[in-house]
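Hey team,

Filing this mostly as a record. A colleague (T.K.) asked me to run one chain through the structure pipeline before their review meeting, and I want the input and output archived in the tracker in case anyone asks later how it was produced. No errors, nothing strange. Just documentation.

Input sequence:
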Amino acid sequence: MLLPSPTAEAAGPRVVVGVLADDDPLAASRAVLTLQSSLSQAFPGEGALAVLLEGGPRDAAEGEPLRRAAEGDPPRLQAGAASPAAALPPLIELAQETKATACALLEPLPRAADTSWLRALLDPVLTGGFDLVAPAYARGRVDGVLGTGIVYPLTRALFGSRLRQPLGAEVVVSARLGEQLLRDDSWRVGGDLWAIAPAVARDFRVAQVFLGPRPRAARPVDVPAALSRVLSVVFREMEQQAHVWMRVRAPQPVTSFGEEVPAEELAPPPDPAPLVAAFALGWQDLRRLWSVVLPPRSLLALQQIPRDPPAAFRMPDALWARVIYDFAVGWRIKAMDRDQLLRSLTPLYLGWVAGFVNEVSTLSAPEVEARVERLCVAFEQEKPYVISRWRWPDRFTP
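Output structure:
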């Protein structure tokens, strides 16, 4: 049977919040119970439901989507697979069934006892008329460099959205946008969720909420796998929304809530020497492969970057933007196996990281943001380049 939340009113919950089960199911279950208590405090009398989203065949739960494993356990919703992309559709469907105004997908992070963060995250959709809200967590100088160096400047140049963290696993969605996403499931790619690009492309109202430092440290990253996974999402959206992003000429401000504060620097910046060594090894081993997607001018520019001393290494912004755009075109025309192509970007990416570390390791938070802004401007200035290459990949040779 469908199990209502203890706080839900007869008319149904106003908001449904799903927490994705991770490697520690017990901790995720506790996070849901804590979240339900926090929702009751943040929205007293308004009705709110927190559920645990877990993997498993969805047809097994057909007709009885929401269950409790045992007394005292949180409601559980089978999502088909334990990934954000798989979890959001059934969460939206549950919100529709219960006639909720909004639904939110969150990670099982330890949260502050103060529930103000919940109101800050949910109110823009519940009362502000926004359709999608993305949280933005404070980061140190070199935290989240994959987002800083590729995802943010690329999506900003393409879609004109200044969302600072546009490819997160957490999102708040209005009933209106949820209905649209269920009609068009092309936004789900592999294990990733990217509801933001379809929302921006269709002129839904988008906002971001600054929530301070991330509640827990990020897990170790397999860089080649992360590049392949993340860029597959972005490049596929480029392919599907080409008619949209080719018409975007300048980024637009995004409504932001909360105060953007710098994160505490918990560790020294990485040593650039191993990163530059990886770049040099990649040049030695992958140069012929890169020549399939990179034009001669870019290859020559990469060859001419001084690698010694490593502390002086720099990747010019315009060159880096063109490299990413060239890989996007290579992915589109299937110049080679797509996973192999994106993984081969690793040494180039590590070279960019080395240069970024060298530049920002001693800068203040505002100076770092100014540096990121210059990178974004370079991606925007090089956008005519990718438009030409995208339209005529076989004829355009710079």
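Quick notes for T.K.: Residues 14 and 101 are 5 Å apart (CA to CA). Residues 272-391 form one domain.
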